[in-house]
Amino acid sequence: MPTKMRRSLLGYLPVDSPIFGLHPMTRLLFLLIVSAYPMIVRLPELNVAGSIFMLALFKVSKVDLRVIKNYKMAFVNLFFVIAIAYTFFGGYNPDYRVLIELGPVKVCWENLRWAMVVYIQLIFAILIMIFFLSTMRERDIVVGLRALKVPFVLAYMAGLALRSIGLSIIDFNTIREAEKARALDLQALPFSEKVKKFGMYIVPLVALAIRRSDEVSNALDSRGFRFTGLKSGKRTDYILSKYRMTKLDYLVLAGMGVFLVGIVLVSIYTDWLALESSLLYRI
Amino acid sequence: MAKTVWDKEPGEIRKPGTIHIAIMALLIGVGAVAGTFGSLSVPLGYGVTGFWPGVAVQAVGGIWFGMWGVIAGFLFPFISNSLAGAPLYVSFAYLPSNLIQGLLPAWAFRYFKADPSLKSGRDWILFLVFGVIVNNILGAAWAVTALQWFGLITVESVPLFFSGWTIGNGVPALIFGAILLKALSPLVVKHRSFVKGWWA
User: Fold this and answer.
1) A42-77 per-residue burial string, b: 16 or more CB within 10 A, e: under 16
2) Using a CB-CB distance cutoff of 8 angstroms, which residues of chain B are in contact with residue A209?
3) Domain ranges of chain B
4) How many helices (H) and strands (E) does chain A have?
5) What is this structure's pTM?
6) Closest residue of A to B178, CA-based?
7) Cβ atoms A15, A6 nearer than 8 A
8) Widest CA span of chain A, in angstroms?
9) What's the pLDDT tens digit per position in A90-101?
10) What CATH code would you report for B18-188?
11) Distance CA B164, CA A189 (A)
């Protein structure tokens, strides 16, 4: 029997994924808190451990790992950009150890090491983002925001905006299909031509959005919505009532919080997480 | 002085309403799709791209829909950058850049009462200066400062990322921004979502 799946922002996730056992607010806070780790800690060993932890989390949450493959080009590209930015534009100091000299450019170990540190740090940060997008639905984000007591109008706008991305993608594909039906092969076109053709997408996309704004606005008005600014007053939230914070949520939140405070304190008061403690700096 | 699209009719009362919430949300959708297309096509890293059509939505959104367009313009890159694989806090760091890229043309068109349909040479010049050049230079300046502050790029590589951002945003802002303004402004200024002031 085929597994029942739920649509997430980046793909599909089995309904029996353990990640659905967590409250959407916990998952939203996961992004905000855990994303701070690689920004605070540069130590590559810790960021590698973080990346491995994220991959394990993908596995435990039953996220199809093929979703990471979609970012293969982004990872490769990032690698080249960082490598070029740091080796060719990394600067030179007489203390640096020169590995190769390419004309006036000196490729130094210190620059290359820094490129590796940054790349490893970004891999961890990107994996966190991919995990979030793979496990969250539009509804989860809205519920998460409402649970965090974000004003109703902001949470509602966030939901509407996320929904409108889906609508715009549908419109975008409709326009592409119409072009294909007229025998336009985009794949075969050079980049300059693709750019020109993009003008044909963006005008109908915006025009459709403007037309749809009337429909959405009328729907909001007919449901008695009023623009009251950020003041929302007391309101019953039906969807929110369907979710409960469990002991697991509190445990996960506490764990993330304690770890965040821990690495901040350790970074401030010790040099254990300093780059100089890394194996890369002993080579 | 000749009447412009920004002047209110006698007795006209303008208030923000649900139409503005709707247009803002829908602009976020369109911008995210346009932005993701660019970020995935010529990425330079950290969400900086050699060709980013989303900037056209920022400039045009600000001009047509005032602060609603500006807010949409600084929120949708957050989504499109995330979808393209930029880390969360790098996307946060770009918020001021994305704000200025929509805010500056919105201010210039209102302050100088330029026609969004780009009917005269003056309208074109204002669009070029504030919607293509200055806004993107300021946006790029902030973005590379933020990247450097995060320690993600070196001082020496600042020109590479600065020029990548400025050109990668400037060219699509010019091409798609002009196309959008010329094609849709006559329709938008008659639509109830059009914002003559900042909020309504």
Assistant:
1) bbbebbeebbeebeebbeebbbeeebbeebeebbeb
2) 23, 26-27, 29-30
3) 18-188
4) 10, 4
5) 0.87
6) A199
7) yes
8) 71
9) 778 888 888 888
10) 1.10.1760
11) 23
